[in-house]
């Protein structure tokens, strides 16, 4: 650590040195060409030729060395024509032509170097993010911090709140763990004393003791690192788009130059052919289109490592995507609060959040955040104690409150809540006092609102196969897979299985892998293009990825794919058009109608044409329509109101359950009146305002006014069902509900619950995902 401050000033120096290496040769060659032109105009033509010859030679030596090195590695590139043209110009004394070719070739190399430096992030070893030390218990009961490599099997360690488990071990006491970084399981896991724990998982509760069962080198985390390193080592070097065209263009050029020399006996014709054929459309236009694409995706929040990765992204046909943190939010959210009959939902949430304010538990943050979003006034807890793996107990406003697990016998309403949570794949946090449970808070890892729209856009962009891979449970994974519309699913897969699946898919097509956890890093390294959710995911994934999403928006991946395909298409157009024009000029040069100098300047004209075309990659190609600022404000406003609508939904379901299970209860009619009042005062005005203001504003971004017609029909159905409930209340008056009313009333209540939930989900997926 003592040497770190001394290293910091070196970074600007390294950056300046890198920029100098990129643009220095091009600047020097341009100066030489201009200096030669000045000497020539001054009548000193011998000196001008000497300056141009020096520039040609200065470009020839490094270019020839680069070509020889690539040929030694059995790589054949487009640069060979430029080398032959430079050598030929020197041989026949066409020094100006050689200098012009040198400037063009150097421009191409500078652009490629610039693109790679600008778009890439330094690769850092995965091990840099691994724990460096561990808290070890001494024989006298004290705690000491030791380097990780000094931890031996059998030693006792202490893992503090929020710490990463340093080595594989066995729990000495119960613990709450976040295992998503290693397994992909989104829900927190309760582990009892004596259970094994893998390194790399995070302590999401109170501190606990751990007895090491392996050292650092043999731990689970180290195994993941080795998988990533092996996959990276197996990754084949990428072939530039220009080199693929060169495979056909170079042999044709050499054959034509040789034929012109053989038939005419004039070597200068061969040189003229080579000068005209110098593939600057490939050396210039292709990098410009790719750099434009890199710049555009960066503005969209996607940093692509280099031009080769962007080209591969534009050719991708298969996408493998992790679930947790990628298709889902990756963070728990309070989806529903169920309360005991006669209980207050807001009060239960307030009590739970008040007690959890001091807890480092991940679920605590979700509860506190939900309560603050609802505007609930949290009390100051006292006598707070936390029992690892069980929950938190404290006093709020003098009332004893326990949040966490519940060990006693559950009442009927609580059993129904537990069963509902299990069917929906949600976690349950019980809120209880000294008399029993007051309510249950159901937590979920929600599917991202933009996930399904993004999947559709990726298909439109040309991806033909989408596979979800996850370490989560099959039941939960299948729900997410159906929600987003992928083609295939692989659940409960370990990091090694993800790597094997990516490798198998990569044999059939260019494959993209998207993930956010440490467990995804090996698969990202194995894929043709690995994409890390860098805004919320582990940096280990970003370190081995070819692209990083720097914003927490999955739809930006669809933007990147569309831009990459467009940039690659523009690059291909520029290359083909430039080579076509060059072939025509080569015919004139072979016939002796175009001397080398004239050919060099003609090639410059061709370059201008193809470069202008390549610059088209700076615009266009995106299917997403821009949303005007006023429409974005409407989206923000009505999206914020959805929380209140979901609160009404929770009460609606409680009322329906009450009428279904106890239709004779005197509480049925008051609950129904309250539900209808909230529907009429909160839900219907929200839907009407959307119909009047939001939906017309969305006609432009969605392409037509008809795009919202289905959702408008949903508004009609919602009002019809609310009016139907109101009709039953009018019939009942102040008397209890009649038995003949119950079936139709339940159909209206449960139907409204289903229609509203579907309507909200569709709006969030199709409309609110348009927000920036």
Overview of the molecule:
It is a single chain. With 772 residues, the protein is an alpha+beta fold. Among the domains are: 132-165 and 167-218, Calcium-transporting ATPase, cytoplasmic transduction domain A (Distorted Sandwich); 303-329 and 448-559, HAD superfamily/HAD-like (Rossmann fold), CATH 3.40.50.1000; 333-444, Calcium-transporting ATPase, cytoplasmic domain N (3-Layer(aba) Sandwich), CATH 3.40.1110; 629-770, Four Helix Bundle (Hemerythrin (Met), subunit A) (Up-down Bundle). Helix content is 57%, strand content 13%. It contains 28 helices and 22 strands. It has a 7-stranded mixed sheet with strand order 10-22-21-20-11-18-19, with helices on both faces. A hairpin with a 2-residue loop joins β14 and β15. α10 (280-299) runs parallel beside α22. The protein is elongated and about 110 Å long. The two termini are 40 Å apart. The model is unreliable at 1-11, 118-127, 230-239 and 535-540 (pLDDT under 50).
Strand percentage: 5-15%
What separation lies between the terminal Cα atoms? 40 Å
Which spans of ≥5 residues are poorly predicted at pLDDT below 50? 1-11, 118-127, 230-239, 535-540
Overall geometric form: elongated
Approximate helicity band: 55-70%
| DSSP strand count | 22
Please count the helical segments: 28
């Amino acid at each position: 650590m003592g040497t770190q401050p001394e290293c910091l000033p070196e970074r600007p120096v390294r950056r300046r040195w890198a920029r100098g290496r990129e643009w220095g040769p091009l600047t020097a060659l341009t100066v030489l060409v201009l200096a030669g032109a000045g000497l020539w105009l001054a009548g000193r033509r011998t000196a001008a030729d000497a300056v141009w010859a020096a520039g040609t030679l200065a470009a020839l030596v490094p270019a020839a060395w680069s070509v020889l090195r690539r040929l030694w590695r059995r790589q054949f590139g487009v640069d060979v024509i430029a080398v032959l043209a430079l050598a030929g110009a020197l041989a026949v004394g066409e020094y100006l032509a050689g200098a012009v070719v040198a400037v063009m070739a150097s421009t191409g190399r500078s652009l490629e170097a610039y693109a790679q430096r600008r778009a890439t992030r330094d690769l850092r070893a995965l091990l840099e993010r691994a724990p460096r030390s561990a808290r070890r218990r001494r024989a006298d009961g004290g705690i000491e911090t030791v380097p990780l490599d000094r931890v031996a099997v059998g030693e006792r360690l202490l893992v503090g709140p929020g710490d990463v488990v340093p080595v594989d071990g066995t729990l000495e006491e119960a613990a709450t763990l976040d295992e998503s970084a290693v397994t992909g399981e989104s829900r927190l896991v309760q582990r009892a004393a004596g259970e094994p724990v893998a390194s790399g998982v995070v302590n999401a509760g109170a501190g606990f003791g751990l007895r090491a069962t392996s050292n650092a080198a043999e731990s689970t985390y180290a195994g993941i690192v080795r998988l990533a390193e092996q996959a990276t080592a197996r990754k084949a070097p990428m072939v530039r788009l220009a080199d693929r065209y060169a495979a056909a263009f170079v042999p044709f050029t050499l054959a034509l130059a040789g034929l012109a020399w053989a038939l005419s006996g004039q070597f200068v014709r061969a040189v003229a052919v080579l000068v005209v054929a110098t593939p600057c459309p490939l050396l210039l236009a292709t990098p410009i289109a790719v750099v434009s694409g890199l710049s555009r995706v960066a503005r969209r929040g996607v940093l692509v490592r280099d031009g080769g990765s962007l080209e591969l992204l534009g050719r991708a046909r298969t996408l493998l995507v992790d679930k947790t943190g990628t298709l889902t939010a990756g963070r728990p959210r309070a989806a529903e609060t169920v309360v005991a009959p006669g209980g207050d939902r807001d009060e239960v949430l307030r009590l739970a959040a008040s007690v959890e304010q001091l807890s480092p538990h991940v679920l605590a943050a979700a509860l506190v955040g939900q309560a603050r979003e609802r505007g609930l006034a949290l009390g100051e807890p006292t006598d707070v104690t936390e029992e690892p793996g069980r929950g938190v107990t404290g006093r709020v406003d003098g009332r004893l409150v326990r949040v966490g697990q519940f060990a006693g016998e559950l009442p009927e309403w609580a059993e129904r809540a537990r069963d509902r949570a299990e069917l929906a794949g949600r976690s349950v946090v019980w809120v209880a006092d000294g008399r029993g449970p007051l309510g249950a808070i159901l937590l979920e890892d929600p599917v991202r609102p933009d996930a399904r729209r993004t999947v559709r856009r990726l298909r439109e962009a040309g991806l033909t196969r989408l596979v979800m891979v996850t370490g989560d449970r099959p039941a939960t994974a299948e729900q997410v897979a159906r929600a987003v519309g992928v083609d295939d699913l692989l659940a409960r897969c370990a990091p090694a299985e993800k790597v094997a699946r990516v490798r198998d898919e990569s044999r059939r097509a260019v494959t993209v892998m998207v993930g956010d956890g440490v467990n995804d890093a090996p698969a990202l390294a194995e894929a043709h293009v690995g994409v890390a959710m860098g805004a919320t995911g582990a940096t280990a994934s970003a370190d081995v990825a070819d692209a990083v999403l720097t914003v927490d928006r999955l739809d930006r991946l669809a933007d990147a794919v569309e831009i990459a395909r467009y940039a690659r298409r523009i690059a291909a157009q520029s290359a083909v058009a430039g080579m076509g024009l060059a072939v025509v000029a080569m015919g004139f040069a072979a016939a002796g109608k175009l001397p080398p100098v004239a050919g060099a300047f003609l090639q410059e004209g061709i370059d201008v044409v193809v470069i202008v075309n390549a610059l088209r990659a700076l615009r266009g190609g995106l299917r997403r329509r821009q949303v005007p600022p006023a429409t974005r404000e409407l989206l923000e406003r009505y999206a914020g109101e959805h929380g209140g609508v979901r609160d009404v939904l929770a009460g609606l379901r409680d009322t329906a359950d009450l009428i279904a299970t106890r239709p004779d209860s005197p509480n049925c009619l008051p609950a129904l009146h309250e539900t209808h009042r909230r529907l009429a005062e909160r839900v219907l005005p929200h839907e009407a305002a959307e119909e009047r203001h939001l939906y017309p504003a969305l006609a432009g971004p969605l392409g037509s006014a008809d795009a919202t017609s289905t959702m408008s029909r949903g508004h009609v159905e919602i009002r019809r069902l609310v009016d139907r409930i109101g009709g039953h209340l009018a019939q009942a008056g102040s008397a209890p509900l009649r038995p003949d009313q119950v079936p139709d009333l339940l159909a209206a209540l449960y139907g409204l619950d289903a229609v509203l939930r579907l309507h909200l989900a569709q709006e969030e997926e199709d409309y609110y995902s348009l927000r920036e």
